[in-house]
Amino acid sequence: MNRILVSRTRALGGTAAAAVGAALLAVPGAAAAQTADCAALGADPIAADIAAALETAQACDVEVRISEYASAYRTLYGTPEGLLHLVDTAEAVQDEEGLGHLDPTLQPADDVLRQTASPWPFALSLSGGQTLVETSGGRLGWDGAVPVPAYAGATAEYDGLAAGLDLSVTAGESSAELRFTVADAAAWESLATGLSLTSEGYATADEAGLYLSTGRDYDLIEMSTPFAVRDATGAVRKAVLEMDGGGGITVRLPEGDVGAEAFPLTVSTDWVYYRSAVNVWAAYSSASPDLGFHRGHAGLGLAYFEAAGETGDALAGPYCDGLAAAECTAAEAASYWTFFSPEPRWTVDSYDGYGLRFPVVSASFRVDAAEGAACVAPELRHAEYGGWSDAGWSGLPDDAPAASGACDGGAAVYDVSGTVAGEWSDNGWHAPLTLAMTGGDATARFDGGSARLDVYFDVESRKVAPRCTGTAASPEFRGTSDVPYGNYTASFWRPDLLGTEVSWTATVTDARTGTVLLATEPAAVGNGVQRGTVLTGLDDGAYKVAYRFESGDGGFEQTSECHYRIDTAKPDVIEFAAIPGTNYIGETATVEVTVADEGFPDGVNALSLTFDSEDSDPATTVRLEDGTTAVFDVDFDTTRTWVRAEVVDRAGNRSGSDSTFLGGTYSRNDYDGDGFQDLFAVRETDGNLVFYKGNGDGTVRAGASRGAGWGGMDIVMAGDLTGDGRDDLLARDNSTGTLYVYPGNGAGGLNARQSVGGGWNTMGSFTSAGDFNEDGLVDLVAVSKGNGRLYLYPGEGEGDGGFGSRTVMGTGFLDNDTVTTFGDFNGDGHDDLLTRETYGQYYHLYGGDGSGGLLDLYPNGYADTGLPGDAEERIGQFTGAGDFNGDGVTDLLLVDEPTGELRLRSFATESPRHTVADSVVGTGWNAMRLPSAETDWTYDYSGDNRSDITAKGPGPEYDWPYVYHGNGAGGFLGGAGWVTDGNLDGFDLVETAGDLNGDGRSDYLVRKASTGALYVYPDWWREEDRIKLGTGWNAMSAIVSGQDYNADGRIDIIASEKSSGNLWLYPGKGGGAFGARVLIGTGWGGMSLVTAVGDLDHDGQDDLISRRNSDGCLYFYAGRGTGKLANGVKIGCGWDVMNAVASVGDFNGDGHVDWVARHSNGSLYLYAGNGKGSYSSSKVIGTGWGGMDLIV
């Protein structure tokens, strides 16, 4: 056979395939040297890299090998034409860089036999031990002592591996054939169980043979061909391998035991390195359908087809197989060759940055006819895979036509340019290329190892691109009135070697009208970054620059577009707006920022809005594309939080920084700074102010006194009025009408008070701790006693707790005895107000509107809201508690009149806010006063929170009670009194009693003259609703009620006994019941006109006045809160002209309790209390009262 060595002569890139094929068959000739350096190149010029190879090839007109791509199976050359020439050979016939021509001859080294020169080592046992063969991937062991071999050339013989068992190993350049000769069944048994396989990586054995993989990703693979068994008859079968967990291998035949007639037999396999640098080929026969013949061999001593009586080691088509029979049998043959590409892209660092491409120019496959055989060129096919010996005839892959060939000089030659270009032209991974001859009408007989693939790759570097980012959908914005053109980047790799010539043109167009504004002449593209120029004087609008790049030879053409939007208008920040609602210090609120830009939004432009607030780091930036507002979170740390915003459009136009201050208010009831709502209350018994530390779960700790002297003060928890970050307390001194702010000290205590102003006794109920105008400051809300208007006093934020000029929030609130701030109950972001209507005890929720006004949210009542619905609940005091249990919803604290329990009413987090829980916080709270200023309605029988007077006319014909409605200013509304439904015939005593039966309305004490029975009558005077307290009360000369003398939160009765002159206290128990009487005074037989006047001296305890008959003087008896009275203090004389005295509460609206007295001349006098235990003045408020039997 005449194998042709690799051609290193000049190749004609771009010529026809036949010419290329002819050139490949030419005998190398010496190129004429152009320089002295060229003459020194030698017969096999080589260069370090692609650039040096192409430089030398062009200078010396010779192909130059690239050292890093020079191997025994595959070599890449640079050509004088600037091409890359790949020579792929089926066998290792080329020089390996660093090793030269490979030599598999075995040489002893380090107690093993190795190939003389090969990068794919096989180490064979030389001095015994238990290792037969060791490779890069693993080792094949033997269960016994390995004999010392005899070796010659590339073969080592291991005789007597076991009794009747010999081994022959023949090394190749990248593989080794192992052939066992088995004499008998005992030898077979030794082989069947004597092998083992181990590896540092992965190893296994099965019917396909041995398999090993190592390397970082187990990508370094070694495999063996299936173990082929040829028995004494010549038949060839495939053995099955099984490997246990310890690496032990069992060899067996699929059909079971081997009969004696089969011996002697041979077992052979090829151990093969599979690498991308090792091309492979294999032959297949239908006569042995389970086996493939690696490089034509089957362990038979000869090539398979030669052993079967044929010529050549690679056949295609029909043939007669005589391997296992005296006469040959018809069979089919096929041969497959698999070649690998070096992937030329890796020949240049950063190849993609230069736009390097390596398209296939031409490709040729050839294989020599077998020595002594005529050349036949069957159809060449492109198979999915092949050339591997782990598959047999029955497992061959699908294939497709690749090329038709022709015989030339004893070789079949094929133009496979199209097939190779389809597989290897991309810059991505080049898959192995398998070419196959699968048959034909004539038998083709080849020297399979002579196969060779020549591929010529062009080297193109034409990467050029405009320096712009704008597209039609997302143009590049410019804040100047110009558009750039001619600015591009060209990255050409070695244009001196490749002869790169490219020109460019640019056309500038108004994108809206299509008008061409500029068209340039062609200009040469320069390598590197080109700055270009600009077209100036353009209006705001959309523009397109279209580029065309092309080479002079027509081989390269590229078009690109750059889109620009000129925008010179600056955007603006229009408004900062806090989301409606109160902003609390320490919480996070939201701020809406509104911006504007000419023509925005337009689907193209975008605004970058940067927002930051005081102490924020970093600032927050949002991108606006289809709206002009954005919402940001702001942490409120002070009452005035600075915020700033700046907006930039895509053209870089900036609005400039715009800023403002947003108001915040501190948490309303956290007096010790622990984040939980606390509670202040006044203890009625001693006038102490008591602090209850909240636990955050709806409970409080034991109360701690914060000082005495608070009995005459109305208090409300006000939030931070002074702006120091601590919650404060508002208190009204009822003796003077002065309103004070007590600054919190942050530790549950209070600092020295500051006066807010006087005259506040003219106001009834009041509340604070709400920011109703949402300026970030705490406001005050109060009801005027005079006109019933609800006033808003806005917080000033001056640090002194003062308030600004009042505005009217609503009218008609005179009939409400309590108002309290209720947080944001309905969840609309505004503070709300809860009030209670005195007459009927109905509750109303008013929603704040954020600007100092109110909306009646539930004008029809609250049966479905969980708030107290009517008098059935018998709620005494109540106050908004803030979020007392930490569930995010405001809560209500209320005192249950019958039980004295302080209850926390919590609500659902969703709307409607039905009650979630009604828990008991504490007991004994009838003796405590909550922080809500409640209007006294003891003497109000009309429900307008003004004191009234009830009187009975003389004689049986006038036995009806008349109610004279007070006007709140010391007089009456209208003339005549209002006649009730009651009948007082037979009754000799009527007294104002306050709410004795717990229905939320004022009652009367009435005594039956004939029996001395004492009754509680409701204000509607129905006998069926009266409560009988007992009989024998006609033993009393005076009976008074309506006040709480033992400070337990329940109304008591005081009575003077006729017979003894003892003064008795009957302590109230609620619901019209009373406890056992207590003696509180003696010597009262000489007293008359005993009157339960209320808290006359504003010390928080209810008092008594009475006339001493001996001197006609009036005396003041101060209550002590224990049921006892202080010694009497004379407050006036000449009272012997008076024949009736009645308590009327604050009849003139000045904040002090008053009383009325009837003169003997029938005039009715009003005595205005001075808040100091006496009166300031008196005046006649009616005449003709002498005819009234009873006045209360």
From TrEMBL:
Q: Which controlled-vocabulary keywords does the entry list?
A: Signal
Cited PANTHER family: PROPROTEIN CONVERTASE P (PTHR44103)
In its UniProt entry, what is this protein called?
VCBS repeat protein
Q: Does the keyword Cytoplasm apply?
A: no
Q: Does the keyword Signal apply?
A: yes
Q: SUPFAM superfamilies of this UniProt entry?
A: Integrin alpha N-terminal domain (SSF69318)
**A single Pfam family, by name?**
FG-GAP_3
Signal peptide, first to last residue = 1-32
